Amino acid sequence: MTTILACTAFCALSANATIVQIDIVGSVDFGGVNIGQWASAGAGDSVVMSFQVDSNNFVDSGVFPVRGYEVIQSSFSLSIDGNTAGLAGAQPFGSPYFVLRNDDPAVDGFFLGQNIDGFPSGIATDESAQIADTFDALFQATYEGTRLDSLDILDAVGTYDFTGLSVFNWGLEDGPVQPMGFIFDHWSITAVPTPASLIAIAPLGLFAGRRRR
To answer: CA separation (Å) from 87 to 96, 168, 187?
Structure first.
């Protein structure tokens, strides 16, 4: 029985969705804000934006060849010059998505948005702004049409830079204006390993089952 239970647990772990980490690393490129914890940040200061998605939690567009993976809200952080904000608890226009574009129509790319079809762009942080209630975090990177093979985020795992890049936009939006822009050094999509403590359940169970025989 132990062997069966352990195998069941292991198979369930294998069948579960993969958590995927997105990390964008760079610096302030232009502009500034004059409110809140980011008011002292300026050109050249460090910027890191990180968040996670579940590879099984996605929505496909009925209009465009795009797929939106819902951002795990508790995983999001945007750090500018060492000062960090998270996501707003309620997104004004819907859920926050990290969207993949494959041959759309002749390019591949990625963007953050509250609508997988492209508008509005950006997702709401919990940092108070001047015009809007909070700043939106923007990210868009468009590459040549051979960069992605599918809309499966696990096929997109890797490190990205400016190679093959045609358009990008990373920064903060406050209502109708973009008061601050960032430039990335690199960014990455990484499958998060299953914790070793969980993986260990199956081997230990299988071993216990064999001993009882």
So the answer is: 9, 22, 20
Same domain, yes or no, for 98 and 154?
Answer: yes
pTM of the model: 0.84
Tokens of 165: 């890049």
Angstrom distance (rounded) from CA 98 to CA 122: 10
What total number of domains does the chain contain? 2
Is the separation of the CB atoms in 110 and 98 below 8 Å? yes
Question: Which among 103, 109, 99, 213 has a CA at the least distance from the CA of 160?
Answer: 109
Planar angle of CA 110, 142, 74, nearest 5 degrees: 25
Token readout for 64 is: 């465009």
Residues 10, 96: one domain? no
In this structure, the answer to whether residues 82 and 177 fall within a common structural domain is yes
Q: What is the pLDDT of residues 131-162, one digit of tens each?
A: 999 999 999 999 999 999 999 999 999 999 99
